[in-house]
Amino acid sequence: MKKLISITFVLIFNLGCVAQNNTRTVINLEKNWRFINKEVAGAEMPEASTANWETVTVPHDWAIKGPFDKHIDVQAVRVTQDLEKVAKERSGRTGALPHIGIGWYRKSFSLPEFKKGKQALLVLDGAMSDAHVFLNGKEVGNWPCGYNYFYFDISDYLKDGENLLAVRLENLPESSRWYPGAGIYRKVQIIVKDQVNFQQWGTFITTPYISEKVAKVNIKSEVNGKNVKLVTEIKDADGNVKAIYTSDKMFDNQIEQNIGVTNPKLWSPDSPYLYTANLKLYQGDNLKDELTTRFGIRSIAYDRDKGFLLNGKVTKFKGVCLHHDQGPLGTALNKAALKRQIAILKDMGCNAIRSSHNMPSREQLDLCDEMGILFMAEAFDEWEKGKVKNGYNRFFNEWAERDIVNLVRADRNHPCIVMWSAGNEVPDQLRYEGVKHAKRLRDIFHREDPTRPVTVGMDRVTAILANGFGNVLDVAGFNYRIHLYEEAHEKLPQGIVLGAETASTVSSRGIYKFPVIEKKMQRFDDLQCSSYDLSACGWSNLPDEDFVLQDDKDWVIGEFVWTGFDYLGEPTPYNWYWPSRSSYFGICDLAGLPKDRYYLYRSRWNTKDETLHILPHWNWKGREGEITPVFVYTNYNSAELFVNGVSQGIQKKNFDTKQNRYRLMWMDVKYQPGTVKVVAFDDNGKAVAEKEIHTAGKPHHLKLSADRKVIAADGKDLSYVTVSVVDKNGIPCPTAANRLNFKVTGAGQFKAVCNGDATSLELFHLTTMKAFSGKLVVLVQSLEDSGNIELEITSKGLKTAKITIAAK
Ligand code: GAL
C-alpha cells in the first residue's frame, strides 16, 4: 500500500513532561493528514475513495481561510446585560468563518515500537469539537468538549503494519459566543511505553514547605505495575543534580516522595526559575518507564487581609483575558505566535493571563512557566443552563467531572497556574441548583489539586450574595459590577475580591472620533470605535475605574482585562452590523499591534520602563482650528504639551478625579498641522523625558520591522513583520490604506497577513491586503531547510520594500 504518511519522531517534546528515552517513544502525528469537510463514512472508506480529500498538517483550522460570510451561524440573541428588549440577529458573533459542519481527518501510520507487553496511548490536545476517534475502523472513544485534552488507550486496536486513524468532528450552529475554530487545532501524539509505567498525567509535584535554606518537594506518582521502585533526580535550571531519592513503598497505585532541595530559587514572574524532576520507574533492576517534568518552587496564599501572596509577597493581578485564536492563524496552535503574544504582554507589565473561557493549550502554559506569567486556567463558559442553544450545556451533567479531571491532571505541575476557574458568568449563578453545581465542581478541583483555589467569573453579584453561590468559592471573581465590590467585600466570607474580568473598553487602532466624550456603546457609521479610550459597554467600565479600586482597596487583588488581544467574533458594539466580524475589546488589535490603551496599562503596570505616549495621531486635514484633545499616557505625574512650539499648559495627575488620575489630558487643543511635543517632569518638576509626533506627508515608502530576524528552520516558526506606510521623511502615515502585495522566496513561505481592521473581509492567507491606519503585519514561516527568507512587498506608487529573515 502506498505510504502516504510519515511519522515524526520527537526527541524532546515541548510539554511539561519530556519523554523520549529508552523506555518510551512519543510520536507526533503532524504531517500528511487527509481531511474532508463533510459527512462521509470516513472511518472505513478505502484509501482510493479519499482521492479528493485535502492533505493537511495538524494543528489545523479548517475554517480560517474563509471566506467570511454574513450568513454563517447568524444567532438571534437578546443580550440581557445590554438591556436589550428584543433579540437581534448577530452576524459576526462567531467570526462569520465557515466553522460549522462536519470534518473528517484520517492518517495512516505504522508503529513498529508497539509490541506485546507495551501500552500505546493516543493523546489529542484539542479537537473542535465532539471528537469521535476510530482506529482501524473501530470507535476508540468520544470527547465532546472541543477545548480539552484527552487520551485513549489504543493498545487493543493496533495491528502490525499499517494502521488507519480517523477522527470525526462536528460543530453545530449556535454552539459558541465567539470563533471557536474548527478541526484538530492542537497536537496529536502517540505514546508507546511499557505496561509497567507512570500513568498518564498521574504525577503531581508540589512544594508544600519553602524556607531560604530548603524546599520540600512532594512528588505523588500513580503507576501501573507491582513491586516497583521510583528513583527521582532533581536538577536545577543549569542541569546540576540537586537531589536524588529512591522509594519503593506503594500505597494503592501511588508512590510518594518528599525531597529536600537546598537553597531553592523561587519561581515568580520576575524570575521564572524552573527545576526538572526526572523520574525513573524500575521493576527489579529493569528500567520500565521514565518521565521528566518541569516544576517551580513557589508558594501561593490568598489572605483575607493581605490579598494574594506569591512567595509571601503581596502581588496584584495585572492580567488579561485571552481567547484561544491567534488572529490570522485562526485556532491552529503555533508556539511562536503564543510566544510573541506573551512577549508583548510582558512589555506592557502584564503578569497574568486568564484562559477565557476554557482550557488553555499546554504550550501556552509551558511558555508562561518559562517567561513568567501567572495563570488562571478556566474550564467552562456554560454549566447546565446554556447561553447558546448547542453549547456545553448539552454535555455538562455527563462530562463536567471528566473535563475538570483532565484539565487539572494535565496541567497541575505548571507553577504559573495559581488559580482554577470553574466557569464564566454561568446562568446557573441565579439558581439554587447552581450553588450545588458550584460546590460539586469546587470539590472536584480540590480533590484533584488541593493546592490551588477555585473561582468563578460571576456577573450576577446581587444574586450570588443572596443565594450563597459566592460563599462556596475560594476566591470571589467578579466580571465588571465594580459598584458592587464594596458590598461583596463586606458580605462575603473570603473578604478579597478579584476582577476576574474587567473594562471591556472598545477601540480600533489608530481611529479617533470627535467630539471626545465618555459614552457607553458608542457607534459610528464606519463601524469603528474611538481610540480615545472613553467607550465601554453597557455592563462594563473604563480601565481607570478598575485602577481606582485596585489602588485604593487592598482587598481588591487585581484584574484580568477583557481582553489582551482582539479575537475573531463578538464584534461588540457592532454585533448586528455587517461586516464587523472580530472584537474591538483588545488592548492590542487582531494583528497584535498595540492600540493606545496598551500604553495606558503599561504606564501603570510596567514599573521598570518609561512610558510616554501621545494620542491621537496628528493628521487631521480639515480640522484646522478645531478642538482636537490630546491625551498622554505616561508613568510620569506631570507633563507640558506643545503644539508647534506653543505651550498648551502643564497637566498633572489629579488623584481626586477618575481619568485625570491616570491620564494627562489637554481637552482644548486646537488642531494645526505640525508637531506635538510632550515634556514630562519628575516629581521635583525637572524635565526628564520628551516625545514628539508629527503630521505626515503623502505615503512614500514602507518601513519593515521583524519581531525576530532569525527563526528556527523547523517548518513552524514564524517571524512577524510589521509594515508601516511612511512619508518621504520616514514619518508614519496614520491614515494610509494602501494596498500591499507580498512575495516570499528562499527558505520560507508566506503564512498570513492581518491589518487589525475588524470590518475587513480580506482573507488572511492571500498575499495581498490593504493597510489599516497605516500598518499591517505579515507572518513569514520557515520551511525545514536553513537559509535566508526574503519578503518583498510591492504597492502601487510606493517603493518596493524587502526584508531578509534567516532560518537556522
Ligand atoms: C463578558 C463575557 C465575555 C465577553 C465580555 C464582553 O460578560 O464573560 O465572554 O462576552 O462580556 O464584554
Supply the number of helical segments: 9
How far apart are the first and last residues' alpha carbons, in Å? 36 Å
Q: Order of strands across the widest beta sheet?
A: 28-29-30-31-32-33-34-35
What compounds sit in this structure? beta-D-galactopyranose
Mean pLDDT, all residues: 95
Major sheet: 8 strands, parallel, barrel
Estimated share of beta-strand residues: 35-45%
> What coarse outline follows from CA principal-axis ratios?
globular
Measured on Cα atoms, how large is the radius of gyration? 27 Å
Total strands: the figure is 51
Work out the helicity level.
10-25%
Poorly predicted tracts of residues = 1-20
* Sheet/helix structural class: mainly beta
Can you describe what's shown?
The chain is mainly β and 808 residues long. It has nine helices and 51 strands. It has an eight-stranded parallel β-barrel, surrounded by four helices. Strands 5-4-8-14-11-12 form a six-stranded antiparallel sheet, with no helix packed on it. A five-stranded antiparallel sheet has the order 1-3-16-9-13, with no helix packed on it. Helix 1 (335-348) runs parallel beside helix 2 (362-371). Bound molecules: beta-D-galactopyranose (GAL). Residues 424-425, 459, 479, 501, 504, 537, 540, 562, 570, 572 line the site of beta-D-galactopyranose.
